[in-house]
Design a protein that fits this description.
With 674 residues, this protein is of the alpha/beta class. Helices cover 39% and strands 20% of the residues. The chain is built from 22 helices and 24 strands. The strands form five sheets. A six-stranded parallel sheet has the order 3-2-1-4-5-6, with helices on both faces. It has a six-stranded parallel sheet with strand order 13-12-11-14-15-16, sandwiched between helices. The protein has a five-stranded antiparallel sheet with strand order 17-18-21-19-20. The longest helix has 32 residues, at 335-366.
Length: 674
């Protein structure tokens, strides 16, 4: 987190104002989301909105200025000098970037959050302006549409450092491998973390992160939300979960270095393809070249060393006759050197043939892209995407990356930036739906730029295939509610509402890496940069997870760059660390305000099997609870006794489990009354 992330500091300095430039649909949603953080919100727009999509917004704005946000005088009138963040979300990217320059000149410390699709320019501006971040609405919302289209168990998909993750929602049935577990925490392992657990008796269908009971059994009829590292067996070594005990290697070499080397070699060998063949052939040819040069030098010491090198090269290129064709019976070349040279020539011919074959295969596989035809429309269990605008292209790209069969429908010419490997059907939507084999499709995603066109296409699809999973893009929040009531099984997503939560979270210094929908909540993949004095520095990870309601995903310590996947609960954050978590907008608000939920459990340590485990028990208590070692030693010396510190339920269950493994009997008890 940046220093501005501490709300108390913001209040003390008077910089608790956020300025929103542009009150279109995205700007209005951003202003409402920001107001939920408890900050003052002002807005600038060229004209007063003709439609307030959020009716109460005019009343909650501190001030609304009708003017050009690019003008320094207008920004000064809006209080730019006391702004902690400025959101530039007009419909014109040029205006947004020009306003960013003006805002930075007036306030060098304010956080700038810009709506822009110019990725390369955004990266350069981040280096020049500092404390700058840019997002494009359709880009951040596209994964939510793609996950909704997949249907079934998968409800979310995102990437962190090129490592894919998926979020699954699993309805537990009798006989399920997850059914009848003694505790939900048993599902957690090196590549999976439980996010929520709902039972049929729960009053809400919207799950909350870290609010589930780890000791509650899983029964038929329950619903479990879980996060899984996709293709976790192919994780790069730096992303692998760290073992419970550190490894040691002879000579003191870092264990992660050897694992990194082995993993890179193994990964290249599995996925190298033609590159693997070329590398092996090249290494083999280099070895033969070195051996041939040495043998020529050994057999003919009077010859210069480079002559042996050149002779070996000629032999590898198939020039046996060029070297030995004119030799007489009294030649200085011994018989074994001639035999080796013949083997060199045969091997070189084979290697050259292999190289020519790979080059020919590559040229033929290109098939002159400008003449390449798109593949045919899938016959069944595919996803139909209606619309090839920015959202349609991004959703199609994600699904294609997941190797899911799909087809794009458009009433215009196929966009050149749609992959040639994706089928495209052109024409009127009514006719194109029939050509897309709609009756056997798995899902239909309507993502055109018009609400009515999206609704019309979805209704036509429902008539042809009532079983298809429908995903509708809308821009009007009123229409969202009406469609959801009329068609409960249909998923209705508003791009601006989804994107606004990303922009609002980014206004407080967080880096939003992605999002997905879980129930009726939007979960943000958020990266924190820990700095001294902020609300996360010095806390145990379990305090952050349970106290603020987030799920830690990746931790990067300040000492080195190797990250840890699903870090341990007893880890304590230091200044300079980086932490990636899953958090709702409510969780971000609590972190911003420093509102941590207090622990409410206590552990009673009853007895030990033998005195030899007393020392280990004290270490476990000090490590997991985070208390002083002397306090933990006193607990072990006065059995049975309660651990004096209150714990979170997840923390308490973890401690009990670890103590039981050490043959120290303990149990969860209600906190002692004071």
């Amino acid at each position: 987190m940046d220093p501005s992330d501490n709300s108390s500091e913001a209040d003390a300095s008077g910089c608790n104002l956020v300025l929103v430039c542009g009150l279109g649909s995205l700007g209005q949603y951003c202003a409402a989301a920001l107001k939920a953080f408890g900050v003052s919100v002002s807005a600038i727009d060229l004209t007063e909105p003709s439609l307030w999509e959020i009716p109460e917004l005019p009343r909650i704005l501190e001030q609304l200025i009708i003017a050009d946000c690019r003008l320094a005088s207008v920004l000064e009138r809006a209080g730019i000098h006391r702004c902690r963040a400025v959101l530039l979300v007009t419909g014109n990217e040029r205006v947004n970037l020009e306003s960013a320059f003006a805002a930075r000149a007036l306030n060098p410390r304010a956080r700038l959050v810009v709506h822009s699709s110019k990725q390369n320019l955004n990266s350069l501006l981040n280096q020049q302006l500092g404390n700058f971040v840019a997002y494009e609405g359709t880009e951040v919302a596209a994964p939510a549409f793609a996950a909704a289209a997949l249907g079934g168990d998968v409800i979310g998909w995102f990437k962190v450092d090129d490592q894919p993750f998926r979020v699954v929602k699993r309805a537990i049935a009798q006989g399920d491998v997850w059914c009848n577990r003694r505790g939900v925490e048993e599902l957690n392992n090196s590549f999976r973390r439980v996010l929520a657990h709902l039972t049929p008796g729960d009053s809400t269908l919207t799950p909350h992160l870290a609010a589930w009971d780890p000791g509650k059994p899983i029964q038929a009829g329950d619903t479990v939300f879980a996060l899984e590292a996709s293709d976790w067996r192919a994780l790069p070594v730096e992303m692998l979960p760290s073992p419970n005990q550190p490894e040691s290697t002879p000579g003191g070499s870092p264990p992660w270095l050897w694992r990194w080397i082995r993993n890179r070699i193994g990964q290249f060998w599995k996925t190298g393809g033609p590159r693997r063949v070329i590398l092996v052939a090249g290494l083999f040819a280099a070895a033969l070249l070195a051996i041939g040069t040495v043998l020529f030098r050994f057999a003919l010491p009077d010859y210069a060393p480079w002559e042996g090198f050149y002779a070996t090269v000629i032999l590898l290129l198939g020039g046996f006759g060029d070297v030995f064709g004119g030799l007489e019976s009294g030649s200085p070349f011994p018989w074994w050197l001639r035999l080796f040279s013949l083997l060199l020539t045969l091997t070189g011919i084979a290697l050259c043939g292999l190289l020519y074959g790979l080059i020919t295969e590559h040229l033929l596989s290109m098939q002159f892209q400008f003449l390449q035809r798109r593949p045919p429309v899938p016959r069944q269990n595919h996803i139909v995407i209606v619309g090839q605008g920015g959202m349609g292209r991004r959703v199609a790209g994600i699904l294609h990356q997941l190797h899911w069969p799909l087809v794009v429908i458009t009433n215009q010419g196929a966009a050149p930036n749609i992959s040639p490997h994706i089928p495209v059907v052109q024409g009127k939507i009514a006719d194109a739906l029939n050509e897309a084999h709609l009756s056997t499709a798995k899902s239909v995603v309507t993502v055109t730029r018009d609400d009515l066109d999206n609704l019309e296409a979805a209704l036509m699809a429902k008539q042809v295939n009532p079983r298809a999973n429908l995903v509708i893009r809308t821009f009007d929040p009123g229409m969202d509610a009406h469609i959801a009531k009329l068609f409960p099984a249909t998923q209705v997503l508003c791009t601006n509402a989804l994107a606004a939560e990303v922009f609002a979270g980014a206004a407080f210094g967080e880096h939003i890496l992605g999002l997905f929908r879980m129930g009726e909540s939007t979960v943000l993949v958020t990266e924190y940069f820990i700095e001294a004095g902020d609300t996360l520095c010095g806390r145990l990870l379990v305090e952050i997870a349970c106290g603020y309601g987030v799920t830690p995903l990746i931790h990067r310590p300040r000492e080195h760059t190797a990250p840890t996947l699903f870090p341990a609960n007893e880890l304590r954050l230091d200044a300079g660390d980086q932490l990636v978590v899953l958090a709702t907008i409510n969780s971000l608000q609590r972190i911003e305000r420093g509102e941590v939920r207090a622990p409410d459990c206590q552990v009673l340590v009853e007895k030990v099997l033998n005195a030899d485990v007393m020392f280990a028990g004290g270490n476990l208590i000090a490590q997991i609870v985070g208390c002083e070692l002397s306090v933990a030693r006193q607990v072990m010396e006065r059995l049975p006794t309660r651990i004096p510190c209150l714990l979170y339920r997840h923390q308490a269950h973890h401690l009990i489990r670890q103590l039981n493994r050490a043959r120290i009997y303990s149990r969860l008890v209600a906190p002692a009354s004071t």
